[in-house]
Amino acid sequence: SPVEIAKAFSLEGYEIVGCIYDNGKREAVHKLAKAGDLDSLDAFKGSKYLQSNTKDVFNDVYKNANKAVIFGTPCQIAGIDLLLKSKNKREDYFLVDLICHGVPSQNLWTKYLKEGSKRYGYGKTPDVIFRDKSKGWRDKFIKIEGDNKTYVSNEKKDLFYRFFLLRHINMEACYECKFRTSSAADIRIGDYWGPRYKDDKEGVSMVIAMTMVGENILNRLETDSKIELAKKECVEYWTVQYPENPIKPVFYDELLKDLIDKEKSLDEIADYYCRGFEFKNKIFKPYSVIRSIINKGRNKNE
């Protein structure tokens, strides 16, 4: 897991750069944990489905860190990779990017928290767990706590998740991302979806070595019993993660405007922009299963 990788490097004198959710700022922010400070690594655990602010920490690492492990989205890692190479410092850093399907507009999160605070009473600066795994690693639940109030909802009912999963309000660059099929990192990591581990209750990570340095590090961590590796065909990255750019919706600009419109509620916006697509997906899912069964039958008879 990312945490085990971070701990192993931290004990070897590497500083660790990862993402936290800053509830005071109400945004995701990249922070630096000093080498050996294992307690600080806990804040890096868990998904943060927002575009994180990297400005301060990347500048600090670039100027002051002798060696570090940096976690981030593929575009963030590509940026720091170019910066390090420009100063011939790349070999002192181990870069890890995440399997990314795009990040939503901060305007969505701002409106979501503002309305949620009024509706559920968790205040303006609550603690947020974007992927509460108390019900399992495959079920997607968001958990928000503040002012002695707790809000928990699954992906089908939660307003933030409804927009996030449809990918209609991603950052504009996410619709033309070139890093879904390439990487500047040493390894790429993410949840191992698909049928192979459907019965696993604890969670399994998909890890792809992008460089020889990355492959050597994974093998060493396995030898040291820090992680367990099971080699699978890389084709499952394509069939499980579907690394394809989503299509930018024709109503993208209108949706952005509605999100900053104080007169329109998120419920109202979701009914207009999400409901039709959700209904289509609900109908299409059993159809796709039937089609898969038919195709398997045809292949057996050929």
Overview of the structural elements:
- The protein has ten helices and nine strands.
- The termini are far apart.
- β6 and β7 (149-154) form a beta hairpin.
- The strands form two sheets. It has a six-stranded mixed beta sheet, sandwiched between helices. A three-stranded antiparallel beta sheet has the order 5-6-7, with no helix packed on it.
- The longest helix has 27 residues, at 275-301.
- The protein is α/β, with parallel strands linked by helices.
Work out the helix count: 10
Helix content: 25-40%
Q: What gross morphology would you assign?
A: globular
Q: Report the portion of residues in β strands.
A: 15-25%
Structural class computed from helices and strand pairing: alpha/beta
Regarding quaternary structure, what we see is single chain
Rg, Å, rounded: 21 Å
How far do the termini sit from each other?
A: 42 Å
The largest pleated sheet is described as:
6 strands, mixed
Return residue spans where pLDDT drops below 50 for at least 5 consecutive residues.
none
Strand order of the largest sheet: 2-1-3-4-8-9
- Mean pLDDT, all residues: 89
Task: Give the H and E element order.
Answer: HEEHEHEHEEEHEEHHHHH
User: What is the total tally of β strands?
Assistant: 9
Q: Which short descriptors sum up this protein?
A:
302 residues; six-stranded mixed sheet; three-stranded antiparallel sheet; 10 helices; globular
